[in-house]
Design goal:
Blueprint: E1 12-24, E2 38-41, E3 50-53, E4 60-69, E5 75-77, E6 83-84, E7 86-88, E8 92-103, E9 110-115, H1 117-120, E10 121-124, E11 127-132, E12 136-141, E13 147-160, E14 165-171, E15 179-194, H2 204-210, E16 217-225, E17 228-236, E18 249-258, E19 262-272, H3 274-280, E20 288-292, E21 298-300, E22 306-307, E23 317-322, E24 330-331, E25 334-337, E26 348-352, E27 362-367, H4 372-375, E28 386-389, E29 414-415, E30 422-426
Parallel strand pairs: 7-11, 9-30, 15-17, 20-24, 21-25
Antiparallel strand pairs: 1-2, 1-4, 1-5, 3-30, 4-8, 5-6, 9-12, 10-11, 13-14, 13-16, 14-15, 16-17, 18-19, 18-23, 19-20, 21-22, 23-25, 26-27, 27-28
Length: 442
C-alpha cells in the first residue's frame, strides 16, 4: 500500500502553473508574477530549480506565495510511460513562509516556493485516480546563495569576450513564450561550450566569435547567484541541421533497454515540441520511444561533462534531443544521462533475510512490476526472487507511518524582490518505510 507516497511509483508528474502571487501581510496579494503559463515536470527537478519569474516587487511584508494551477493540466506517468489519472482536489495553494518576509524598494531577494509533491498526492497508482491536493512551504534564501538551475533558455542579447560574459533574453519555457527578462551569464574556464552541431568549441574565444546578438539561441546550465548565472554548460540551439529551433524536440524519461545503436525509453514528459511528437505518433504522445544514436550523437553526464553511449543503462534517466522528428527511425542529436554514475533504484519487498548472517551479507527481494529491472527484462517479473548484495552498501531504515516529503523532490517556484527569481523545485525526502535499492545479482 502506497497511500501516502504515490510519487515513489511515478516517473513524472506534470502540471501547468498559470499564476504566481506574493501574499501580503494583512490581506491582498501582488499581481500575477508569471509572464505566461509554465508547464513543469515536478519529479524531474532533482536538486535543481526551475526559474519561472523575475519581477520587481512592491515594498511590503509578505507571508507566502500563492500558486494557481491550470485545471485539468495534470499528467502523471509511471516508469513504463503509462498515464495515471489524476483527480485534483484543489487547483491552488498558498505556500507560507516560516516568518514574514520584508521587501524594500532596493536590493534583491530570492524566494523559493517548495511544492511537497509526496504529501500532495494520495491514493494507489495501481488503482487510479490518484488525488492531488497541493501543499508545501516557501522560504527567503540568501541572494548570494547558489542554486542549480535545471535549464535557462534564451537568445543572446549582447556578449563580451573580454569579460567572458553574455546577456541572454531569457524565457521560463522552451517555446520562448514566458519571458524572464535579461539575465547575465558568466562563462568560466571550466564551462563546457558546444556548437550547434554538438562539437565542442576549442576555446572560449571561438565560442564568443560564433555568437550573433539577437539571433543565437542558447540552452544554459549552471548556478543562479545574485541574479546572474555561472554557467557549467552552454549549448547553441539554433538547430540548423533540423531546419531551425522550432523543429527541435526534447523528450525526458527512463531507459528501458539498450542496444548497439539505439535504446528504448519510456516518456515522462515532452520538454519541447509536443505538437511535433503528437503529429509523428498519430495524434498522441506515446508511452515509449525507440531512440537511435550514431557516431555524431553527443552524450552528456549529470556533471555536464561529455560522456559516451556506455553511460546508458536500464533505469537511467535521460533527456533526448532530436534535430528532426518526423518519422522513425528517430535519431537523437544529443542525449543527457541525468543520473550517470549514481545507482539505479529498483523498489521491492524483502522476502528473505537469511543471507544477512553471511560473510558477504545479502537479502532476497521481489521487485515491483514497475521497477526498471523488471520493465527492462533484467528480472522476469514481480514474482522473481532477486538476491541483493549488501557488501559495502549503506542501508537506510525508513520509519513506518511517516510521510516522505519527496521521492526525487519537487522543484520550487522562486520569486524575488527587485528582480524576483521564481523557481520551482521539490523537497528532499522524509522517510516512510523500509526500502531497499536493488541491483539484480549477475
Amino acid at each position: 500500500m502506497l497511500t501516502d507516497t504515490p510519487a515513489d511509483d511515478l516517473l513524472s508528474f506534470n502540471a501547468t502553473v498559470e499564476e504566481l502571487h506574493m501574499v501580503q501581510q494583512g490581506g491582498g496579494e501582488t499581481a500575477n508574477l508569471l509572464a505566461g503559463p509554465v508547464t513543469l515536470d515536478f519529479l524531474a527537478l532533482q536538486g535543481s530549480f526551475a526559474w519561472i519569474a523575475s519581477q520587481d516587487l512592491p515594498a511590503d511584508t509578505y507571508t507566502g506565495v500563492r500558486l494557481v494551477f491550470t485545471p485539468g493540466s495534470y499528467d502523471a506517468r509511471t516508469n513504463d510511460g503509462a498515464s495515471v489519472a489524476v483527480n485534483s482536489l484543489s487547483d491552488e495553494v498558498t505556500l507560507l513562509f516560516t516568518t514574514p518576509v520584508v521587501v524594500t524598494d532596493t536590493g534583491y531577494k530570492k524566494i523559493v516556493a517548495d511544492l511537497d509533491l509526496a504529501s500532495s498526492l494520495a491514493g494507489l497508482v495501481s488503482s487510479p485516480p490518484i488525488d492531488f491536493d497541493p501543499t508545501g512551504s516557501s522560504r527567503d534564501d540568501s541572494s548570494t546563495s547558489s542554486h542549480a538551475l535545471d535549464e535557462l533558455k534564451g537568445v543572446v542579447n549582447t556578449h563580451d569576450v573580454s569579460a567572458s560574459t553574455l546577456v541572454v533574453d531569457a524565457t521560463a519555457d522552451d517555446d520562448g513564450a514566458v519571458v524572464l527578462g535579461q539575465v547575465l551569464v558568466r562563462v568560466t574556464s571550466t564551462t563546457l561550450l558546444l556548437a550547434d552541431d554538438g562539437s565542442e568549441f576549442a576555446t572560449r574565444a571561438d565560442f564568443f566569435d560564433a555568437l550573433v546578438d539577437a539571433s543565437t539561441a542558447l540552452e544554459v546550465h549552471g548556478n543562479l547567484v545574485s541574479g546572474a548565472v555561472t554557467a557549467t554548460r552552454i549549448e547553441v540551439e539554433d538547430n540548423a541541421a533540423g531546419g531551425g529551433e522550432d523543429n527541435l524536440v526534447k523528450l525526458r524519461g527512463l531507459v528501458l533497454a539498450v542496444n548497439a545503436n539505439d535504446f528504448e525509453m519510456s516518456i515522462g514528459s515532452v520538454d519541447k515540441g509536443e505538437a511535433i511528437v503528437m503529429a509523428a505518433n498519430g495524434g498522441s504522445v506515446p508511452e515509449t520511444q525507440t531512440v537511435d544514436f550514431d557516431e555524431a550523437t553527443i552524450f552528456f553526464g549529470s556533471d555536464d561533462a561529455l560522456t559516451t553511449s556506455a553511460a546508458l543503462v536500464v533505469g537511467a534517466r535521460v533527456q533526448a534531443k532530436f534535430a528532426s522528428y518526423t518519422s522513425a527511425p528517430f535519431l537523437a542529436s544529443r542525449v543527457e544521462v541525468e543520473n550517470e554514475g549514481s545507482e539505479v533504484e529498483n523498489r521491492g519487498t524483502i522476502t528473505d533475510l537469511a543471507g544477512l548472517a553471511a560473510l558477504s551479507p545479502s537479502l532476497t527481494a521481489r521487485l515491483e512490476a514497475t521497477s526498471p529491472a523488471v520493465l527492462g527484462g533484467l528480472v522476469t517479473d514481480e514474482t522473481t526472487d532477486v538476491e541483493v548484495d549488501l557488501s559495502g552498501a549503506t542501508n537506510v531504515l525508513d520509519t513506518a507511518g511517516r510521510r516522505r516529503s519527496g521521492t526525487r523532490s519537487s522543484r520550487r517556484p522562486c520569486a524575488s524582490a527587485s528582480k524576483a527569481p521564481s523557481a520551482v523545485r521539490r523537497s528532499p525526502p522524509r522517510s516512510t518505510r523500509r526500502r531497499s535499492k536493488c541491483t539484480p545479482a549477475s
